Amino acid sequence: MSTLLEVSGVSVSFDGFKAINNLSFQIADSELRAVIGPNGAGKTTFMDIVTGKTRPDEGRVIWGERSVSLLRMNEAQIAREGIGRKFQKPTVFEDQTVRENFLMALKKDRGVLSVLLFRPSKADHEQVDALAEEVGLLAELDRLAGELSHGQKQWLEIGMLLAQEPRLLLVDEPAAGMTPEEREHTSELLVQAAKTRAVVVVEHDMEFVRRLGCKVTVLHEGAVLAEGSLDHVTSNSDVIDVYLGR
Amino acid sequence: MRTSFIAKYPSVLVFLLALASFTIIVTILSEGFGIGVISTSFIKTLGKTLCLCLIAVAMDLVWGFAGILSLGHFAFFGLGGYMIGMWLMYERTRLIVTEALMQGQIPPTGSEVIDSIGSQIFGVVGSNEFPLIWTFADSLGLQLLLVVLVPGILALVFGWLAFRSRVTGVYLSILTQAMTLALALYLFQNDSGLRGNNGLSGLQNLPGVEAPQSIVSMWFFLASAMALGLGYSLAAWIVSGKFGSVLRGIRDNETRVRFLGYSVEGFKLAIFTLTACIAAIAGALYYPQAGIINPAEIVPIASIYLAVWVAIGGRGRLYGAVIGAGFVSLISTWFTGGKAPDIPLGFYTIKWVDWWLVLLGLSFVGVTLFAPKGIGGLFDLMKKRRARHEHTS
C-alpha cells in the first residue's frame, strides 16, 4: 500500500497558541484510521489544514502518487483532487430535497458552464438510488433534507461524500448525538467505505472507535502522542495520563 | 424521473399565460392598437412596470437564490439606459441637424454635421466636442451590443475583485452601494461626457420613425412584455437544474459548497454578471419609455427599492419578485402621481406624495416581521391548505 497523504512537520498557531505542533501523519490507500484525543488536541485543525481551510505556518502536506503539495490549492481544488470532508455538525442543504443534495455531490465536472447545462441522465439517477439505498435513505429521496432526523442527515452527508468518490474521506465525529442503532449503521458505513478508499475518522467515543477495529492515532497538544491498535494505545501510559489527568 | 424544467417550475407556464393574457387585454384596450380605453401615458407606465419586473427577476436570481444582497443592480439598469439613450439622442439630433443644414445654399460637409450635432447635444454642459465614449453612438448595432457589454464588464470586474477577496454579507452590500454611488456621482459631473445632471432626453422619439407615440408606446410595451417572458423563462431554467442547486447551496452554506469541490467565487461571479446584463436590458427598454435618463436614476436608494420590492413579493420564487415589483411600483405611481386623495385630519392633512414613503417603509417592516416569505408566501399557504383539505376529505 502506497502512501496517499503525507503530513510532515506541520505547525500552526493562532495568536500564539500552538494548535498544531510539528505534526507528522501518514495514511495509505484504502486504510481506515481513527484519530482520537482530548479537547483542543488539534483534531479539527488537522482536518482544516488538509482540506485547505487553514494554512499552516510551516510543514508540508503531500498528496497522491504525483506528490503534489496541497498547500498551494484552495478548498474547492483540494475537494476536486479527491479529499472529502464531513463536518461535526451535519451540514446538508436543508432547503433542497435529498435527491438534489446527492445530485450536487455526484462526481461530475464542477465548471460553471457544465453545471449550468447539466441534466441528470438515467445512469445518474440510478447512481443516486444506489447511494441512497446504501445509506438507508431510499424512501426519503424526495423529502426536503431539512425534514430528516439528525441521524438521517449524518447519513445523507456521508452518502454525499461517497457520491463525490473521494480517495480520502475525513470524517469529524460522525457518531455524535446518535442512538446506539444509528451508531452501528454509521460504523458499518465507514468500514464499508474504507474498503475502496482511505478514511480518517475523528471521534471521542471509544466504543465507536473499537467497533471500527482499525489503527488509532492519538493526538495531544497538536502532536502525535501514540499510534497503533486501540488496545496498544490505551495501554500506553502517556495516553492514560492525558485522558485521565496526571 | 427525468423532468423538464417546466415540470419542475410549473409557475413558468402559469406566469407566461398570465403575462400573455395581460398583454393581449392591454393591447385591445390601448389607444395605439385597440379601442382607446387606456391612455398612451398609462401604456408607458405599464411598459415601464414590466421592465421593473424584469430587473426584479434578476434581483431575485442574485439575492433570492444565490444570497448575494446586491444593492447596486440599478447601476447596471441605468447604464443599459444610457447606452441605448446615446444612440437615440445622437441619431435624432443628426436627422434634425442635417435637415436644418440642408436648408442652406451649399450642402453641409460631414464635419459640419458632426460639429453641429456636438454643439446641440453638449451645448448644455458648455462643450461641443464628442467625448470618446460616444465613439459608437452612430451605430445602433454597436450601441445595442454595449447595452450588455458595458454593465456586464463592470459587473465582471467588480464581482471578480469582491468575490475573490471573499467579501460577503453586509460588507458586500455596502460595496455595491459604494459602486452605484460612485457611478452616480461621476455621471453628475458635467465633464463625464453624458451631459451631467441633464442626462439624456427626448428618448421617447425613435429617430426616423413617423408613427405617433400611441403606436411607439405599444411597440415598447410589447417588447417589454416579451423581454419579461424570456427573462423569466431563462431564470426559471437556470435555477431548475444543478446550477440552481449550487446557487441555493451557496446561499445557505457557502463553505459546504466549497468542500463539495465547487468554485463558489466562479458561480457568484457568473450569476452576478448575468443578472447585471438582464438588468441592463431591462433598463434599455425602460428609458425610451420614460423619455429621459439622468444620474438621479441610479442613486443608491433606487437599488434599495429594488430589494424592498423583491422582499415584499417574496424571495427565491421568481414570481414573487414580479408581483412585488409590479404591485409596489404601480401603487407608488398612484400615490406619488397625486391621484390618491389626501386625508384631512383637521389639524393636519396627510398628503400621500409625502407619506407614501412612510407607508412603503412600514409595509417593508411589516413584511419582514410578520411575513418573511412576502406576498408569494401566500401561495404556499394556499397550497398547504388545499393539501390538508384533500387529506381530510
From TrEMBL, chain A:
InterPro entries: AAA+_ATPase (IPR003593), ABC_AA/LPS_Transport (IPR051120), ABC_transporter-like_ATP-bd (IPR003439), ABC_transptr_urea_ATP-bd_UrtD (IPR017781), P-loop_NTPase (IPR027417). Residues 5-246 form the ABC transporter domain. Gene3D superfamilies: P-loop containing nucleotide triphosphate hydrolases (3.40.50.300). One of its GO terms (molecular function) is ATP binding. The keyword NAD does not apply. The keyword ATP-binding applies. This is Urea ABC transporter ATP-binding protein UrtD. The gene is urtD.
Automatic annotation (TrEMBL), chain B:
The chain crosses the membrane at residues 12-38, 50-79, 140-163, 170-188, 216-239, 259-286, 292-311, 318-335, 355-379. Keywords: Cell membrane, Membrane, Transmembrane, Transmembrane helix. It holds the Pfam family BPD_transp_2. NCBIfam families: urea_trans_UrtC. This is Urea ABC transporter permease subunit UrtC. It is found in: Cell membrane. Coiled coil: none annotated. InterPro entries: ABC_transp_permease (IPR001851), ABC_transptr_urea_perm_UrtC (IPR017778), LivM-like (IPR043428). It is a multi-pass membrane protein. The lineage of its organism: Bacteria, Pseudomonadati, Pseudomonadota, Alphaproteobacteria, Rhodobacterales. It comes from the Bacteria.
